[in-house]
């Protein structure tokens, strides 16, 4: 592989493989390389190995726009998603462009050369590559470790304490009492999955989360596939699910009391008579202040109904040798504790960025269309939706990047850079989301703005119009040719 490429992609997960597919389809003669810090394709879907790991979005929207999902289950397990990503890479020849075990630590832009110089570490050695475009698909969380609070007395616990992000392959929970700390997507996945072998599984939560049941199989999608074939059925199902999820999101934001009532009634129908629904499944916040948890075919509710699982809403006083002592005075016996307590966010994999020798301070930058940084040339990143499937946005970012490159080819441009000029734009957090893992780290990320094009939108339909159809030249994006100043004075 050459040390210089037209496009350097960082990350060989769902986003990176999708970006590579779209760019090589649009520009067969352009060169590209993918740098992947780990030793395998798949990103999140290769990293997480805990029992029952699955998507919390339907695969007709989490799947790529260009590659129909054809399996019967719409809520897919992790290994099936991983196979889907790897098949996409192999069939497109993308796997031949990946350098595994390369962790990017620094990227330096030179206006004089119109290129990035990127330094990665591989087997303890520094590897340097240059690229005309740097495209980050590395996600936004720390791959090495998750978030675990400091629990009093945790060192006294006699059994193993496991974080789902580092699940031991040899962990045997057969016939054991398991306590899963947390109430998010990982916790509600783990609890029913572990009841197959555990004596009992308890989900210990400090406060409730909204949990909704969704059919694991999309009957309409499967019927359409038989009648119309995979491609047309996939297109229709994708938009059906986008519209349905958008409508429920808008209902949740505009009429939260109606959405709360709908979610509660559905939970009551699936839980045993007399169950304390409001204590364990009625959050203090409004729907979609945080991400809703989806459970396929109500598996969490069914596990509770059979008595194999239970939910305890309380706070931890301290760990003991044989379990957890709660603030209420109750004691939870445990042989194994799983801390499903969230992610640690990490912007751009922790790499250092500089432009013409000046360090880029991320909190002082603003995100353009949620995919570029103000005053950082030839740079693209992917952050998906918080209220819909990640891949919906990732696909659009790749499409827009291809449009941008075609525009540059047509006009002979060598550089692009979003520039904050004109009317004042008020700064806002990049993600307007109340989840704990977001609130803990948002100050380390770029900022969003109060008006377009500096907003990170959360509407797929709006972004389809904006990124797929609106003009590339919008007044905020500046283009220059090689040899010209980076930000020419307007005529």
UniProtKB/TrEMBL annotation:
Q: Does the keyword Transferase apply?
A: no
Q: Which UniProt keywords apply?
A: FAD, Flavoprotein, Monooxygenase, NADP, Oxidoreductase
- Spell out the family assignment given in the record's similarity comment: Belongs to the FAD-binding monooxygenase family.
Tell me the cofactors it needs.
FAD
InterPro entries in the record, alphabetically? FAD-binding_MO, FAD/NAD-bd_sf, Flavin_mOase-like
User: Is-annotated flag, keyword Protein biosynthesis?
Assistant: no
Q: Name one GO molecular function term.
A: N,N-dimethylaniline monooxygenase activity
Question: What is the name listed in the Swiss-Prot or TrEMBL entry for this protein?
Answer: Cation diffusion facilitator CzcD-associated flavoprotein CzcO
Pfam family membership, one: FMO-like
Question: Per the UniProt entry, what species is this protein from, by scientific name?
Answer: Actinophytocola oryzae
Q: Which residues form a coiled coil?
A: none
